[in-house]
Amino acid sequence: MIRFERVTKGPFHHLSFDIERGGTAKILFDSEDRKSLLFGMLAGLLRPEAGRILFFGEDLFANPENERLALFQRIGVVPADGGMISNLKAWENLLLPAWYHRGMTAREAERPVAEIFEQLEPGEDGLKRRMGELPDRLSLYERRGVALTRAMLMDPDVLIYDFTFAGLERDAAQRLMKLTGEFHGRKAGRISLYLCPDDAVSARLTVDSTFTLTQ
User: Fold this and answer.
1) DSSP assignment, residue 205?
2) What confidence tens digit (pLDDT) does each residue in 100-120 have?
3) Exposure pattern of 109-126 as b/e (b: 16+ CB <10 Å)?
4) Exposed, middle or buried, 70 (CB in 10 Å: 0-12/13-18/19+)?
5) Alpha carbon separation from 180 to 9, 49, 92, 94, 148 (Å, rounded)
C-alpha cells in the first residue's frame, strides 16, 4: 500500500490518498514543477514539511537514509529523463541495479531484456543495437525504454512512472503503456502508480483510481 497522510510540502497542503495493494492509479498534474515535487517525495529525495508517506505500512522518512535500503529495493521508478548515469553505456546503466542488488549476471539478464526489447522496438534494428551508446546518444523513447527495462529486472512491488508517456509519438507511448500494464499483472499485489500530465495521452491509460492535483 502507498498512503499519504496529510502531507504538506510547497503547494501541497494536507494531501491524503491511498493506493491499495494490487492497485493501479494515475495522478494528473497541470504543472511539471508540482509533479517533480511529488515524485521527489515518493522517491525519498524530498522530506515533507508535515504529514507522513507510507509504503507497505512503513513511514518512508522514519529511518535514516542508510537504513531504508530494504524498503527502496521494493520500489522501482522510471524517471522522465531515463535517470541514466551519463558516463556509462546504456547496457551498463540497464544492468547495474540488478547486478548490484540481485547478483544478476549479464548472461542471466540477456533473455528477459531481449523479450522486453522485442515489445518496445521489434526487430534487429530495435533497442538492442543501441546498448553500446552513451545516454546522450539515445532518443527520449530509448532512454525511457532502458529505464523501464532496468526497473522491471528488479521485479519491484511498487513501480512509479514519471511522465513515462509524455512527449512521445502516439505509437511509442502506446507500446510503453501496453508493456507497463502487462508487467503489473505478472506479480500479485504489485502497485503501479503513474504520474501524468492532464492530456489526451494520459486519458487513454486505464487504471483503478485517478487523482487530480491541479491549482
Assistant:
1) -
2) 999 999 999 999 999 999 999
3) beeebeebbebbbeeeeb
4) exposed
5) 29, 32, 22, 17, 8
* Apex 121 CA angle, 181 and 73, nearest 5: 50
**90-102 vs 140-153: helix crossing angle, rounded to 10:** 20
Q: C-alpha cell of 173?
A: 507511448
What single letter denotes the amino acid at residue 113? V
CA pair distance 25, 207, nearest whole angstrom: 5
Q: Does pTM top 0.90 for this prediction?
A: yes
Beta bridge partners of 4: 17, 53
Give the DSSP letter string of 74-115. TEEEE-TT----TTS-HHHHHHHHHHHHH---HHHHHHHHHH
Distance CA 213, CA 11 (A): 10
3-state secondary structure of 172: helix
